[in-house]
Amino acid sequence: MKKGLILEGGAMRGMFTxxxxxxxxxxxxxxxxxxxxxAGATFGCNIKSRQPGRAIRYNKRFSRDWRYCSxxxxxxxxxxxxxxxxxxxxxxxxxxxxxxTYRRNPMEFWVVASDCETGKPVYKRLDTCDDHDLTWMRAxxxxxxxxxxxxxxxxxxxxxxxxxxxxLAYFESIGYDRNVVVLTQPESYRKGPNRLMWLxxxxxxxxxxxxxxxxxxxxxxxxxxxxxxxxxxQGDVLVICPDKPLGISRTEKNPDELQRVYDEGRRIAxxxxxxxxxxxxxx
Length: 283
Description:
By secondary structure, the protein is of the alpha/beta class. It contains 13 helices and eight strands. The protein is 44% helix and 14% strand. Strands 1, 2, 3, 4, 5, 6, 7 and 8 form an eight-stranded mixed sheet that branches. A hairpin with a 2-residue loop joins β5 and β6.
């Protein structure tokens, strides 16, 4: 039996996921592999480096730093979340990422990105978190309109949430048969059509397949979450999600709001510890 962890994105809703992961780490609950999408990748990687508390710490510290996330960064670098700051300066100098522990930990860590030319998801295992892997992580979190397209390994990539927000089916296809899914929206949430599709079509007009994926994203997302809920009701997967909408901006800069959502993740995870342990122990 291979135990997997699937981490949805959602920008700063990812503070909920960070709270959940910190509780899992603090209580010695481990997995054979994890797969993260967008913020689920950038915050979730701390479970492989075994660094509880890191994601909430640096987000609160730098949330109001223009280099981290700002219109100024978007206008001067092309990325709302500054690429050099987030994937170089921060993990290597300002809040050190434990690259050695990440490499030694046998747990697999995967990310999802979206191929602009095919409109399909691309899955990548990150074994070292070196600069090449960090670029894949950046691709997974590169939101359309708010980020440059990331070119790596012959592909042009954007946010993995465009094409596979909850990659349960992929993880099962590679042998993970006991999976915990962490969502950042409540069970009642249903996604609607993107209100900025007119702008997406304009900006991404050279990539008609990714435009199509963006157009249909709400349909795919709602179908996927319906399947996840059904699988959870049957006992095949375990879902951890908020009780109600988190009420946080995707680019939240208020440290108190970041802490509130993080604490909600901790509360939910703590209340379900016995259930999580039992689920992972069952064959």
